[in-house]
Write a structure and sequence with these properties.
heterodimer, A: mainly alpha, MetI-like fold, B: alpha/beta, 6-stranded mixed β-sheet, globular, ABC_transporter-like_CS (chain B)
Chain lengths: ~325, ~550
Amino acid sequence: MTRYLLGRVGQALVVLAITFTAAFLLLQVLPGDAIMIKFMSPEMALTPAQIAEIRASYGADLPLWQRYLTTVGNFLTGNFGYSIQAGVPVSQQLATNLPPTLLLASLAFVAAVVLTIVLAALSNLTGMGWLRAGLQSLPSLFISVPVFWLGIMLIQVFSFQLGLVSVISPGPVEKLILPVATLAIPISAPLAQILMRNIDEVLTQPFVAVARSKGASRSWVLWKHVARNAVLPTLTIAGVLFGELLAGAVVTEAVYGLSGLGGLTYQAVGNHDTAVLQAIVVISAVAFVTINLIVDLLYPVLDPRLGRKVAAT
Amino acid sequence: MTSLLDIDDLAIAYKTGDHEQRVVHGVSFKVEPGEVVALVGESGSGKTTTAQAVLGLLAANGRVERGAIRLNGTDVSRWSQKRFDAIRGSVVSLIPQDPGSSLNPVRTIGAQLAEVMQIHKRGDRKTIEARVLDLLTRVGLTPAEMRAKQYPHELSGGMKQRVLIAIAVALNPALIVADEPTSALDVTVQRRILDLIDELRRENGTAVLLVTHDLGVAADRADRLVVLQGGRIQEQGPVKEVLASPRSAYTRRLLSDAPSLAKARPERPTPSAVDFAIEVQGLTQDFPVAGGAPFRALDGVSFKVRRGTTHAIVGESGSGKTTAVRSVVGFLKPTAGRIVIDGVDLTTLKGEALRRFRKHIQLVYQNPYGSLDPKQTVQKIIEEPLLNFEPIAAADRARKVRDMMRRVGLPESFLDRHPRALSGGQRQRVAIARALVLDPRVLVLDEAVSALDVTVQAQILALLDELQKALGLTYLFVSHDLAVVQQISDTVSVMHKGRQVDGGPIDKVFVRPDSDYTRELIDAIPGRTMPVLASPAISLQG
């Protein structure tokens, strides 16, 4: 088990190292940089010598490999560098922008999981054929809806037409309702699709017939026998979808005018603020890798067959 | 006195698309308390559907159209699932077909056994726990404390079936529906499992509705026999009477097609050739095990097969017979030993030379459903091997394919069909045609008739016999079924745990085996109590 754990953690670290390097190189080859954008505007009226001095103060004049090593060293010691545009440490910007995004993403994820389970459970327990068919076709509808459009539609319907959620100075909870829904619905779609398909598949397994022959009711069979077996493959998808959640959060924050990692990313891209972008990429990668690591480690817990294989390696 | 189970004029239909297909047409029979009634028939006979209806477990598109299923006098055929839940497990229970997939892989066997008592609320946690251990011990799974905590994947097929039997008898039901309870098990395990079911039902006075395709099993274990074909009862009565003097032509055919050791061996011609088509010497195969000593799947296996004869490799699962086959056709590089096919040492060939040599030795697989590409037509399937070797003109290829179709007894109109439009037996004919299209000298048949119904099996065996005579083929016939092997082979190797424990001419090995294992294997074959019928000529027709 320890060997399996160490192997998985090692793999995760390799992924992080590669992501870090790739992000660094890509950001460096972008034409133009933040210093040029900020200081070369005519209003500043700085001489080339002054600009060169500023460049030197940021370490931007050093050769690529030297900058790479410095950045690696800085990241390892928790120093994410300075935002050139804002003139403050990146860590400070993250401290204000990360928590709201994290909150939004986590709430959306929980909402997506709840929505998925409700859809799957209802469609399997209802005796009404039309309801079952309707619930089962929902995910395909959800999956084809773009996030920005959904966001705009939700605002139109719930805020402007029904007046249920106020757009002007909403409360802290009210403010999150529509963004969470916007983000959760497209995420729940593939999850629900896969979960429903898995449930249908598990229901055809002979052990389900055996459970029914013991006198188990439909819901007993669904919760005690089908659920855990059907959740296993869904878990992998849930891990992968987390990446989509981050991308979705950026769009959602833009639509709803929320401050967060999305807004920060948007600005940093516009200003070629490489230090900020590097930090955002690394943080996203860490989150993604961690979630998938947790999924990998959860597998042997949920499926005893894997537990033994893991122990044997 | 009312019967325990009284099935009266039962008709069941399945809805496919917008029309209903009736599969059971007015079936009537009774099961008295404590009695074993065998429901015998081939695939599509409606035996499983009838059994499922008794448990209220018909597929969602199935419907009882007519008739009654009376349990202790009460008609349950139109009961809701909710009402059925109250009697399933407690009054009627099930021993399923495939123990491998009949237990939930993510729950311990103790939990799955306890469940049937929890559902019917028989006692508190302590009582149920104690009962679980009692039951596990009773079905021979000891130490019970350890077994209760194990997961299904930690048990063998036979042990899993013991768990399922424990579940079925836990609440002492009046009737157990045993749906092909031993079809997926090795023959020696089958005997022990059937013995266990017998013992338990005698102890508790439980009646058993035994669904089986195996007349031998029915003959040995049942009091009464119900023979089904195409959803209709052909005949029923006390097992001895039905088997001794079957009234219906169908039962007679089943009896004559069923392979049995008690049957006289067909005369086999003495081989004219003196040379050997296959010589295997000291074949050993190791498989690496992560972080441990390699696993020896084959250990010094040797046999010789005379040209134009059939050599059988017999063994139970894990005996190494499949590994032996894979080595002989050159899919595996042996760790040690020689495999000489037609004078060429296969173990010295590699790359292109090995690929070319494969032409001479072809394989027919067990599962006729999985071994044919569902997207290809029969024409394409049979033709494909020709495209892998020297180019042949399209017209010649087409002629060759038609020749093969005729040889295996398939009409030319099948050429454009896809495998799904064919029956199991027809598919296996296509697979044989595909193997023969390259004019091989050796044909390896890996459980090639195991998945087929007995009448179809008999037809395919007759076809193989005919092809051997006409083309001078040498067969390597891998099977777990000694009765089939005895019918069609000249020589045999009996495998057990990677070793060859017996070998030589069939007559010698079957009558005077060297090893206790072979004797046990022969004794375990069901159907010793089955009377032998004079074999009609029908089984020789393709």
